Structures are given as structure tokens and as C-alpha cells.
Amino acid sequence: MRTLSGDLIAHRLSQAPAGALSKRLYDVLQTAIQQGAIATGSRLPASRDLAQELCVSRNTVLAAYEQLQSEGYLQTRTGSGTYVCEQLPETAPQASLSPSTSSAPFNHIRLSRRGTRVLARSGAGAYQWGAFMPGVPDVSHMPHDIWRKIQLRLSRRMPVEALSYSNHGGCLQLQQALAEYLRVSRSLNCAPEQILITAGTHQALDLVAKMLCDPGEGAWIEEPGYWGFRNVLAVNGVELLPTPVDDEGMLLPDLASFSQLQRPPVLICVTPSHQYPLGSVMSLQRRQQLLALAKSAGSWVIEDDYDGEFRFGESPVPALQGLSADAPVIYLGTFSKTLYPGLRLSYMVMPKPLAARMKMAHSELYRGGNGLAQLTLAEFIREGHYAAHVRRMRQLYSRRRAALVKVISDSLGPAFLSQQGNAGLHLILSLPERIDDVALAAELEQKGVLTRPLSAYYIQGTQRRGLLLGYACVEEQNMAETFAPVLHCLQRRLSPA
Ligand SMILES: Cc1ncc(COP(=O)(O)O)c(C=O)c1O
User: What tens digit of pLDDT does each residue of 167-208 get?
Assistant: First the structure.
């Protein structure tokens, strides 16, 4: 059987200058690896297979492989084969690269100031699942069979519109199904026309920033708060105004001092149902105060209801948006936590006149689509599978949270579980101020345990130390064992030197 890398090697070998065959093969392989045409970490064909493909002797291939292995380009794994090393030798000879294929000119790409800011703030990990990655659901419980059946049924009679660009803020069936679901389960004031389907909350916020904020205008953001909001707003030139939170949510000034502000915020971004990352619920009094302030100054409240479905043992907290018919609220919801993040489906709920403009802008900027997934989701909701899945996952996460709480209380004591609500997909392991939570999280990552340091969620002001621990992907019976590396690294730091 011919392999992709075999084809590439055969082609390049046929173009290579004359010389000893094993030296030519060595040169071809080395250049292809240096250029990334054969990727680091990838498996090369077995020597016998490659020899057959190239019509050369196996010894010729073995000689080239061995030379590259001794130079640090290849490694063999017993019983598994020959692989390109993840880390290539830095002193790789450049002479064998022809000028036209050298990557040197691209070492000095000039990025825009905005682009530089995007990268300076980038924190997304390569792998975002498993213990104790905060904020990710247990995607292995997604009812794929039901999803697949619906999708198959729909794909047999796909309407043309579902295969084209979507120009109406997403497919109507999904807007209708969502409007009903949100009215019942999250107490929203919501008609289908108010809904715009987006490809993730970041896209929704990007649209908000581009359409509602001029560069230099301000947004109040929670301190501590979600890094994604900070990044998307800042990259759009919005001035970040960190505003501390307490047990009732964002701390707000009274109306009199608010009206004195020279430049009231254009946006006030909050997570009222479950403050991210500390976990408080915004009180009713604070909600009313927030709406009154926003109305008085013409600000928009951005309500990020990222995991409002997951409250355990208590009734759900209704959305802020539903408090009054003319609430100046842009409600952001996502299926990343209830279904799975890779689905990239989320939504905005806005007052109708704003929704109409945002839908037009969304079509201009991002060209919506993904019709089949949207139609499938609409049916999934309409037939009750979505509500059933959320119910099932709520019970599962509730048990997993309780298991982690018990492990922490038993091993470290309740002081390490600062006051926090009983909700969501993560909890905070509170740490004494002298513990460097950033260093602790880095050490744990080396051991394959993903956590996030609490101090990184603050822009300024009083920092609390802690670790965000996502428990959603850890089965109860494995909780103590999975927590053991965290406990071990922490105890070492806690014990006097
Ligand atoms: C607080 C908060 N809001 C929003 C999101 C983003 O969700 P999405 O996957 O829709 O971009 C996340 C994701 O982790 C989050 O933690």
C-alpha cells in the first residue's frame, strides 16, 4: 500500500541530484522534516514498506533512517515503528535547503499591533479536556446515537437554505425551539426574532464590541473575570474597566455617583447566574440596581449565562434578561457546556431592533452557516432530548462535585473550600496567600493535570490565590486518585521547609 509520506519521498527522490542512493534518501528525508512536510511526531513507513515503495533495497532505507536517528531527527519506539522526533536538533544544517524552500524569510513576519495583542494574551492550551480542566463538560456522555438519527433523517430532505449562507441570524427552526426553551427554563423574555445564532461566545462578543463600542470606549468587566471577555474586548480597542465582585455579584455605585461619571461604560459585562470564576449569584437587589444604572446611562448589560443550567440541589436562578420587558440586556448563551464545545454553537438574545442590525452585521462579518447542525439541534431540543440530557448531566456533575468537595475536605480541611455556590463545572481550591498558584498549576500541568491559577483571573487589585478545578470529566470513584497529584504538590509547598 502506498503511504502519503512514501509518495512524497518517492517524488522528491526522483528530483534529487545524482549521488549515492542512501545519501540522496537521507537528504530528501532530512529536508522534508526540516520543512515540516513530514511533521514532527509523525510515523514514517516501516523500512521494508518504504524500500518496496521506492524500489530500493531495505539496507538503503535502514542506512538513511539510522543516520537521521543518530542526528536526532528520528527515534524508534519498540514495537511501534520509526517516528520523527517532536524536538528537532536546533543545529540542523541549513546548507541542504535550497533558497526557494528555506523558511528563513518568514521568521520576521510583521504583525499588526492588534495581532501582537492577540498573541500576547493567548492562553488557550493545546489540549482542553480531562482532569481538572475547568469549564469543560464530560463530552463522552453526548447522546450521539440520538443526534445521528436526527441528522440522518434531516439530511435526506435538506432544504436548500440549510446548505447555503445563513442571512437571518441562524436557522428559524433553531430560533423557535430555543425561544421556547429559554422562556421556560431560563425565564427569558424572548421571541425567535430576538435570537442570533453564533459560532461561540467569543464570536458573539466580538460582534458586540465591533458594533457597539468605538475604540477607547469603556466596558466594566468583573474582577476577577473570564479571560476570554478581556481578550476579545481589548483586541477591539475597548478600554477594560475591572470592577470587583463580592458575594452578591459586581459591586455597583449608587445612581447619583454613576450619573456623575464623565464616561459611563458602553458595556457592563456580568455572569449573574454564576459569577466566573468565584461562583456567587447576583442578588435580586443588585440586579435591579444594575438595570437601573444601565438604563440611566444607555449602557448595555452583557449577560454571560455560560452554565446557568447547572445548579445543584437548588432551583435555577432566572436570567437577568427576564427581569423587565425593556431590560437593556444582551444575553449570551452557549451549547459548549451543555452539549460539547467543539459543536461551536451559541446564541445571543437581544431587543428586536438591535437583533435586526446585529443579524445583518453578522452576515457581513462572519458568513453564518452550519445549517445541518442547527436543524439537528432544533429537533434535538423540540423532541425533548436536550432537556433530558441537561437533567442527566446535572445529576452527574452534582455527584462529581460532591465527590471532589469530600476529597478536599477530608484531605486538606474545609478552609480550602472558600464559600462558593453549589453550581457549575468547577470549584475553587482556596490557597494561602504565600502559595504561588501560577507555579503550582504549571507543575501540575507537567504531570498531566490541568488546572488554572485563580490569581490569573485578576487584572489588578486584591488577588486571591487558588486553583480552579474542573470536576466534570472525573468519575466519582476516581476522584481521590485523580486529586492525589494536586494534594502531593500542594502539601510539599504547605509544609515548612
Ligand atoms: C465564563 C465563560 N463564558 C463563556 C465561555 C465561552 O463559551 P463558548 O465555548 O461558547 O465560546 C466560557 C468558556 O469556557 C466561559 O468559561
Answer: 789 999 999 999 999 999 999 999 999 999 999 999 999 999
Of the candidates 365, 387, 409, which is a domain's last residue? 387
- Size of the chain in residues: 497
Q: How far is the CA of 306 from the centre of ligand 1 (A)?
A: 6
At which residue does the C-alpha cell 526540516 appear? Answer: 34
For residue 456, what are the domain limits? 393-494
Peptide bond into 215 cis (omega under 30): no
Asked whether residue 418 falls in the same domain as residue 382, the answer is no
| Closest protein CA for atom 7 of ligand 1 | 201
Do 377 and 397 fall into the same domain?
no
* Model confidence pLDDT, tens digit, residues 451-486: 999 999 999 866 799 999 999 999 999 999 999 999
Residue 378 and residue 236 share a domain:
yes
Q: What is the whole-number distance in angstroms between the Cα of residue 276 and the centre of ligand 1?
A: 10
Pocket of ligand 1 (CB under 6 A): 135, 200-202, 226, 228, 271, 276, 304, 306, 334, 336, 341, 346
The total number of structural domains in the chain stands at: 3
On the CB side of 335, CA atoms within 13 Å amount to 24
User: How far does residue 51's CA lie from ligand 1's centre (Å)?
Assistant: 50
Q: Are residues 442 and 379 in the same domain?
A: no
Q: Is residue 402 part of a domain?
A: yes
Q: What is the mean pLDDT of residues 382-391?
A: 96
- Of 90-94, 119-123, 325-329, 397-401, the one with minimum mean pLDDT is 90-94
Query: Is 229 in contact with 221 (CB distance < 8 Å)?
Result: yes
